Amino acid sequence: MSIEVVHLHGFKCAGTTLATLLAHNFGTTFRCVESTKRAGRLPWSQVVGHPDLVGIRAVSSHTITPPPQGTGSLVIGLVRSPAERLISAWRFFQQQSKQPDFPFSGYLKRQSKLKNYQSRLYSPQFAVVHDGLPLWGQHFNHMQLGHNYFLGTVDRYAESLVIIQYLLSLRGINFRAFISTENAASSSDNKTAPDAPIPEAYLNVDKLLYRRCNELINAFREVIPDFEPRLKALEQRGPEESQFRQLVDSENFLQIPVPL
Q1: CATH number belonging to the domain at 5-256, selected among 3.40.50, 2.115.10, 3.30.460, 3.40.10
Q2: For position 47, what pLDDT does the model report?
Q3: pLDDT given at position 10
Q4: Is there a contact between 35 and 87 (Cβ–Cβ < 8 Å)?
Q5: What would you report as the CA-atom Rg of the chain, rounded to the nearest whole angstrom?
Q6: Pair 252, 246: CB distance under 8 Å
Q7: How far apart, in whole angstroms, are the C-alpha atoms of residue 162 and residue 185?
Q8: Cross-strand bridge partners of residue 130
Q9: Three-state DSSP state, 112
């Protein structure tokens, strides 16, 4: 059995919320998979066919490169408003590093090589090294979004879930979707004000991706039968994620060494 669903987990993009929903639906056939190297990408070629993933139907990862077209997997993810995501990531860094006064200007310097992070994460990867970063190339124009590769948005999370549910139904997968009471993308946010503006070079391509994803959502709304009733039914379902949250914790992680 091949991997049917690949969730590309964007940092500070409600990824844990979506991964928990996958865990709810796929149970023990769901796995979190990461590279052994911090911030290192994990080539899809080292994931497919891995002996520890036999029988696994759905995976979630911060580091897997998007599978090539034609693999048969449904690839999903969420995109967040670029400036909002970057500020949220900085506040999360303050919290995790226990440096509540760490300036936003300093965080921008730390992230200087990963400008347009979301476009890099979701881009197909052709060259091993791009701008000195292994498998972090930005290839926005090569993203083939649609029925096999869907990127929703955090601020239209409910609509994105309806579309994911529909795409899985086309593959014969009954996917129970519901709205979580906690949005993991904003759970660590505080009210610290940035001390510097965000240079446009950090956001320009991500803005294009964000707009494209919203256009994709609009297009799916037009073709999915009974979209509004589906959306209403989704919103009426209660949160049941707590018992499945452990499946996205560290004990369910598979770390695969990368040669880069």
Answers
A1: 3.40.50
A2: 94
A3: 96
A4: no
A5: 18
A6: yes
A7: 19
A8: 133
A9: helix
